[in-house]
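As a warm-up, study this chain.
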Amino acid sequence: MTTDPLRYLGAELQALREQGSALDIRILGGAQAATATIDGRSVVNLSSNNYLGLTTHPRLKQRALEAIERYGVGTGSVRPIAGTMDLHEELEQRLAAFKQTEAVVVFQSGFTANAGTVSSVLGREDVVVSDELNHASIIDGCRLSRATIKVFPHKDVGAARKILRELPASQRKLLITDGVFSMDGDLGPVAALCEVAEEYGAIMMVDDAHASGVFGRNGRGTVDHFGMHGRVHIQVGTLSKAIGTLGGYVAGSRTLIDFLRQRARPFIFSTSPPPAVVAASIAAVDVLMEEPEIIERLWENTRFFKAGLHAIGFNTGASDGPITPVIVGESAAALHFSARLFEEGVFAQGMAFPIVPRGKARLRTIVTAAHTTDELQYALDTLKRVGIELGIV
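Now compare it with the structure written out below.
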């Protein structure tokens, strides 16, 4: 009998468990809703990216069903061969108009949109200047590009400027930031970084995954929120969060999008998004344009919940939006806090190292437009009671 060459993974997994950093995967037993059935228990759900509640919106569900009837359940090919349907073209045109750019290309996920774009537009001789808290998909794209990676402290515009100032003027460089940072919920300094990019001739890129559908007019994102149209060369958005479906996209110039269609490996080598998902995404754009009150409800709920957390005395960091961390500190304490809340009917996932820095473990809470005031008040009351019980507040 041969020795298992992967046996070392067991020891590493055990170490994660002993450190309190191992995450248990919970099972959703129904729709992704404000109150959901998870692991067989009905809980107030504070861990979903379904910001606007669109996963169950009637218009999206109807368009998805109609698409299945007409197109079937899959595309059966990659986009460059036989997997581009008229639905894909319609969605890309609708998103380009929504984002006020010349063109858009849709990817299978926000992760592949980031990784595929950065690795396509940069090469070994280039430099990427990246915020230290940028999303993992950006980090992986930077590595795949083989460009030199220079990281600046979180939101430190001066440090980013210093890095760019010291680079040769002729060298191609990309300056990149999240629009909204996924673990802290704070806005990236998009406007200030645009000025720095223009000063030093850098390509400006913004990952607007957690801003899409949340910030800006009708949810157009941080580029719109800060009035930076025409000054951000590459915008990445997601269909997987506020839009309520699945996928990611890149918005920019026609030249950029045509180039990505030729060079971005996820676009070329992965089967295209299924018709039901694409049709539902088109319907979601309609909802954003025609039902803006949904976004206002999201912000009303966000303000209510944040005020409640602050009144209790929780440390919520520097959050600017619906993502509101409840910072605990040690990994084991944060995960135990999360587990106790779940027992009491509130699902607020604990986040520990390496997802967040050591010593900054937290609950990552997200409210949605679908939450009622009663649901949010129950969550706040439970957070307070369990927080006092565990000595966190």
